[in-house]
Design a protein that fits this description.
CATH superfamily: Tetratricopeptide repeat domain
Number of helices: 5
Order of helices and strands: HHHHH
Helix content: over 70%
Number of strands: 0
Structural class: mainly alpha
Mean pLDDT: 84
Low-confidence stretches: 14-25
CATH topology: Serine Threonine Protein Phosphatase 5, Tetratricopeptide repeat
Distance between the termini: 63 Å
Number of domains: 1
């Protein structure tokens, strides 16, 4: 009986961990989509805020978009160092756009 109780507790702990991961992944995608709505409406300051939330949670597309905003100076001062940082994070996850931007920055000597 004690073993069954330990097993149930273990299953509950694992379930909570998977639920937390699922919620965070969902939040990151939602943050990205919210940022995209603001970006399309040309509200770059607000888009930047939501892309950063997505990027901070590890969402590669959010990291890429944040990189583009720094690259083009949209809602922030143009900052190629900061752009490269975010492109690099997304490229490590296999984001194709970020990989292309890393190549472009390298060709520019950055």
């Amino acid at each position: 009986m004690k073993t069954l109780g330990i097993l149930i507790i273990g299953i509950l702990i694992i379930s909570v961990c998977f639920y937390q991961y699922s919620v965070e992944a969902s939040d990151a995608q939602d943050y990205y989509e919210t940022g995209s709505r603001y970006y399309r409406s040309l509200d770059y300051a607000e888009a930047l805020k939501w892309y950063r939330k997505s990027a901070d949670q590890g969402e590669a597309i959010g990291q890429t978009q944040l990189g583009f905003m720094y690259y083009f100076g949209q809602g922030v001062s143009k900052n190629l160092t900061e752009a490269k940082k975010w492109f690099h994070k997304a490229a490590l996850q296999g984001n194709e756009e970020a990989l292309e931007m890393m190549k472009l920055l390298k060709e520019k000597g950055f």
